[in-house]
Amino acid sequence: MRLTEHPVLRFKRGREVTVYFKGQPLKAYEGETIATALHAAGIRVLNYSNNQKRPRGLFCAIGKCSSCLMVVNGVPNVRTCITLVEDGMQIEPQRGKAKLPGDAKPPEFKDAAVVRADVIVIGGGPAGLMAAINAADAGARVVLLDENPMLGGQLVKQTHKFFGKREQFAGVRGVEIARILGDETRKRENIEIFLETSAVGIFQEGDEKLVLGVRKNSELVEFRGRALVVATGAMEKMIPFENNDLPGIYGAGAIQTLMNTYGVKPGDRVLIVGAGNVGLILAYQLVQAGVEVEAIVEAMPKVGGYFVHAAKVRRLGIPILTRHTILRAEGKEKVERAVVAQLDENWRPIPGTERVFDVDVIALAVGLRPSIELLHQAGCQIRFVRELGGHVAVRDPWMETTVRGIFVAGDTAGIEEATTAMLEGKIAGIAAALRLGIAGEEWIKEIERAQRDLEEFRSGPFGRHVAEGIRKLLSEVGGNV
């Protein structure tokens, strides 16, 4: 079901087109993804697993898992969560491993277009946008690529207002910040933007960093630069419970994408797992979209998010069940019920405390892990730091990794807030321009100012563990760039 009214957002849909699912026509709109159009039509099962042939549905909605792979115009393994609809498109559920059409020929590397710049930025979220803007302002020629069809990353789905200082967009909604940063990026003539472009490898050729990209699932592009900022964000975490692969079980970000980016209701009744900031914010965003939130369950003995978010949720009458966890999802082809139970002091379910919720959506807001695959492939030193959300690249105070000329920023560097992602992006962008000798020494003051803002932002109770994780990383290296 597509939303027509929303208290905060206005959905501007493109031209109506027709796509075909298993040969049957479906209404869609230009500018929305295949998975969005299918969800709007009530279709939840997108493919079936290889071995057990179990139904699978949308999970992350940002192209970082395999749950939405489908056969589109005869081509298998298409990530339908980030692939836009086209008039006449033929869509089929994928059943296990699929084969390319007999006449399909993969593009050859020698045919790749070559794009050159001083700094290449991978990722168009808050960190990547700020890196591109600041590197460009410091005098660098910048290429920015993102595999999604729009700039903004996670900002494009955030309807809440940000905390912090005025210069860090305090009091501004995330969706508006995405628009502002996108406009600022497009204003700069020395930034070239490539959307719907996936970075699939980082290589070194002499003094150049080579990023191999695939544009719109078909065109190979070589991006060549002397410095690289990796701001690829994060992935949703999963937790183990029975039937956790049923369609209707989403990462929190996927639900925000459906509702807040494309104006499609994910379902009618939702159980949220996780009472951190993401789970709390998701609860009142669901209410904004006219969806009933049955409860939030949280394994910890207390709510993990900000008091202001928890208070807002409680005023809406949504119960928050601490010391509870989900035991299983029930349903045949999609979620129909969720069973939760109370936990004892040893984190074991207490027999007899089971509760059943009749829901068609289970939202997992159980944390993120940094997307460091490209950094790992490029040879950057990787370390597990629990306080930063998992495996991260070792880097110095100027965000440079152990591979000279490769910088990192945002959730890729450690799971934090969008505000810290923007500040880290600023540091990385300027540092990349300084590394290349393009920026003057006066830009060092801008880095120092951003570092002070980061330290201040992390000084509160929610940032102390992050600061500890960063201290662990910085112990691996010394000094500035």
Question: What is the element layout, followed by pairings?
Answer:
Layout: E1 16-21, E2 24-29, H1 34-40, E3 47-48, E4 55-56, E5 69-72, E6 75-79, E7 90-95, E8 113-116, E9 119-122, H2 126-137, E10 142-145, H3 174-187, E11 191-194, E12 197-205, E13 208-215, E14 219-225, E15 227-230, E16 234-236, E17 249-251, H4 252-261, E18 269-273, H5 277-288, E19 292-298, H6 307-315, E20 320-322, E21 324-330, E22 337-342, E23 355-357, E24 361-364, E25 368-370, H7 373-377, E26 382-385, E27 390-393, E28 406-408, H8 418-435, H9 443-457, H10 464-474
Parallel strand pairs: 1-7, 3-7, 8-14, 9-10, 9-15, 10-11, 15-28, 17-24, 18-19, 18-24, 19-20
Antiparallel strand pairs: 1-2, 3-4, 5-6, 5-7, 12-13, 13-14, 16-25, 21-22, 22-23, 26-27
Ranges where pLDDT stays below 50 over 5 or more residues in a row are none
Instruction: Give the count of helical stretches.
Output: 10
Bin the strand percentage: 25-35%
Overall average residue pLDDT: 92
Radius of gyration: 22 Å
- The CATH superfamily label of the largest domain reads FAD/NAD(P)-binding domain
The strand count comes to: 28
Distance between the termini: 51 Å
Q: CATH class of the largest domain, anyone?
A: Alpha Beta
Count of distinct structural domains = 3
CATH architecture of the largest domain: 3-Layer(bba) Sandwich
Protein name: Sarcosine oxidase subunit alpha
GO molecular function: 2 iron, 2 sulfur cluster binding; oxidoreductase activity
Pfam families: Fer2_4, Pyr_redox_2
Organism: Thermococcus siculi
